[in-house]
Inverse folding.
């Protein structure tokens, strides 16, 4: 159908791009993760598993990884709890305001991540909007210090940032449900609540899984929110990777941690794809 | 053979025969979407155990009427009564009415069995009863072998049976069917028409069947309600509506017909070169003459009341047992004639029909 030349022109650039900027760096990182750093701060190209051993033995690494996962899990749950009802309302009850409300979900995505993270800093800080307000109405006497530089701040900010990423796939899944199925359910005697749990929710599971995956994976790898709002107790695994590649100058260990995360994320994506397939019917 | 036309009309329009009690009563129902009037002042009574077909072209409002009965739409005005209770005040899930949807609307995530069990499960019937009733329903529609399949794995005809079982298992008072056969091919469709009709007799539940296919309507129904642009044109038995169409529209929509526009003077109707006796008062009138009521002259014992006309065959369409021919007569009169005897194109033929077969019909006013 298409000429050979056309096929070449179309396929070669993306292949070159993927090889140069994705596959090659990963391969390099893979190699680095088995190398080490000499006391003189040189990379030693001798193959060993020392970095992976360190990763499992030093509490700071796996504990930070666990904390990051726990933060990501909370962000995922809150995003779903906020995103599902909104997507449901949007799809089933928004009527003429559907397009407008949909745009209002999208618009925050156009605003720089940094701006939104800084905005939370302004709101949560000890002289911030929230503390000032709480003291002004005499709800508190002193600024609440757990608001900023804490895992709470990180979870809050990431939830705010990633909720649209859960709304969109859930909304798409809900829009996909033929409305005559809802009518059929009512026709067969199911109340609106029964209809939701027996028809609408099961058929929206692919969207929920996609949204949950977005929120979890994007949060797990985040390093700006913990950097700006996390404080010492809100450090996440990516911050450690950043410092290992930077100030600490231990690229091999940084590469080992990155690969560990990559394994986690890829397995999750694989799992979520299986789940989505299992719950897709047509 | 006595003429069926001569049978007295014992049924009031819009009312089922007196023998069966009324189940559903539709009273002056109207529906407008924005400025668009989809239904206007529709009144109709449906009897227990009756097979009633709502027949109409697309856009006639037939599906809207069905959706109002099911509860998916609210009438702009009018009332629905089921026995002695207002039906239109109840949400769809409280109505003892079930629907077979045009596209079947089977739940894709549930098996055939789970689809059929759905209504009983949400009604929280005991598990043993559910199992038994579901098994019976699947057996009735011959789908037991596919009980554990997902709907996507079975054919359209099979999905149709499952949809039927899913609705009937709840033992509704009234079953609504929204063009359920339209997606099937012609053979399967005819087979399903017969099966559906015998199933309806067997379960004894009132069926309201929506279709745009007049042949299907005549084959299956006890009564046909013909809807045109949101108004009922005629409600009658299949025979009645065919033999005694109330309006020109009904005569043309159901089967083939010749519409003769005529003038009545002193008990004689005149149309083109034709003239025949009639009991209508003086004035202009419209008559429907079925093609099968026009015969070759002299083919039956001579009948003094017969109206005769000569013409030339201009077109013929072979229909198996019979042929439909177009005969051009004098004064621009064209008659469509059903004949079993072979004729050739451009043959000159002499035709006759009985004056009684020219059925006076009302003109159908323009609506939009």
């Amino acid at each position: 159908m298409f000429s050979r030349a056309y096929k070449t022109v179309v396929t070669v650039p993306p292949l070159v791009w993927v090889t140069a900027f994705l596959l090659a760096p990963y391969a390099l990182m893979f190699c680095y993760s088995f190398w080490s750093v000499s006391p003189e701060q040189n990379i030693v190209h001798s193959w060993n598993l020392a970095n992976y051993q360190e990763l499992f033995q030093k509490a700071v690494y796996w504990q930070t990884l666990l904390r990051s996962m726990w933060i990501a899990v909370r962000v995922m749950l809150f995003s779903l709890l906020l995103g599902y009802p909104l997507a449901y309302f949007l799809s089933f009850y928004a009527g003429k305001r559907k397009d407008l409300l949909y745009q209002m979900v999208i618009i925050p995505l156009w605003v720089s991540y940094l701006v939104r993270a800084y905005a939370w800093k302004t709101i949560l800080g000890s002289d911030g909007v929230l503390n000032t307000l709480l003291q002004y109405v005499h709800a508190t006497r002193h600024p609440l210090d757990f608001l900023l530089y804490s895992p709470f701040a990180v979870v809050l900010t990431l939830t705010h940032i990633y909720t649209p990423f859960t709304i969109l796939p859930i909304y798409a899944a809900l829009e996909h449900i033929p409305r005559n199925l809802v009518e059929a359910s009512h026709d067969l005697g199911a109340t609106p609540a029964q209809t939701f749990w027996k028809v609408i929710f099961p058929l929206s599971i692919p969207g929920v899984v996609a949204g949950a995956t977005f929120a979890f994976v994007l949060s797990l790898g985040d390093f700006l929110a913990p950097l700006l709002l996390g404080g010492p107790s809100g450090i996440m695994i990516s911050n450690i990777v950043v410092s290992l590649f930077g100030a600490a100058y231990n690229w091999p260990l940084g590469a080992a941690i990155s690969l560990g995360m990559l394994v986690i994320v890829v397995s999750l994506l694989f799992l979520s794809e299986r789940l989505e397939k299992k719950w897709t019917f047509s | 053979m006595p003429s069926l036309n001569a049978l007295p009309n014992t049924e009031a329009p819009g009312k089922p025969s007196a023998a069966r009690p009324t189940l559903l009563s539709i009273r002056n129902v109207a529906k407008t979407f924005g400025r668009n009037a989809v239904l206007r002042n529709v009144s109709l009574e449906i009897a227990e155990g009756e097979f009633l077909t709502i027949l109409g072209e697309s856009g006639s409002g037939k599906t809207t009427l069905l959706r109002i009965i099911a509860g998916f739409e609210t009438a702009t005005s009018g009332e629905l009564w089921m026995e002695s209770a207002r039906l239109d005040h109840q949400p769809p899930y409280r109505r003892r009415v079930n629907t077979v949807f045009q596209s079947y609307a089977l739940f894709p995530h549930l098996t055939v069995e789970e689809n059929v069990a759905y209504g009983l499960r949400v009604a929280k019937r005991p598990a043993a009863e559910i199992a038994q009733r579901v098994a019976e329903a699947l057996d009735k529609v011959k789908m037991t072998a596919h009980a554990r399949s997902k709907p996507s794995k079975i054919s359209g005809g099979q999905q149709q049976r499952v949809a039927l079982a899913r609705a009937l298992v709840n033992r509704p008072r009234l079953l609504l069917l929204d063009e359920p056969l339209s997606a099937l091919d012609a053979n399967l469709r005819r087979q399903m028409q017969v099966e559906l009709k015998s199933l309806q007799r067997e379960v004894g539940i009132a069926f309201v069947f929506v279709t745009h296919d007049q042949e299907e309507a005549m084959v299956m129904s006890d009564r046909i309600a013909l809807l045109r642009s949101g108004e009922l044109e005629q409600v009658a038995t299949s025979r009645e509506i065919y033999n005694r169409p109330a309006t020109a529209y009904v005569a043309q929509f159901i089967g083939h017909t010749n519409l003769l526009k005529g003038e009545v003077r002193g008990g004689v109707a005149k149309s083109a070169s034709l003239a025949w006796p009639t009991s209508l008062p003086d004035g202009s009138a419209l008559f429907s003459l079925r093609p099968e009521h026009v015969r070759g002259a002299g083919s039956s014992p001579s009948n003094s009341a017969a109206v005769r006309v000569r013409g030339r065959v201009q077109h013929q369409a072979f229909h198996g047992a019979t042929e439909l021919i177009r005969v051009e007569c004098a004064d621009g009169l064209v008659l469509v004639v059903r004949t079993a005897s072979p004729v050739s194109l451009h043959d000159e033929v002499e035709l006759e029909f009985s004056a009684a077969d020219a059925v006076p019909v009302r003109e159908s006013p323009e609506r939009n």
About this structure: Confidence is low (pLDDT under 50) at residues 1-13 of chain B. Chain B touches chain A at residues 70-72, 91-94, 97-99, 101, 103, 105-109, 118-119, 122-123, 150, 152, 166-167, 170 (CB under 8 Å). The helical segments of chain B are 62-70, 112-122, 127-140, 156-168, 186-203, 214-220, 238-243, 248-253. The longest strand of chain B covers residues 306-318.
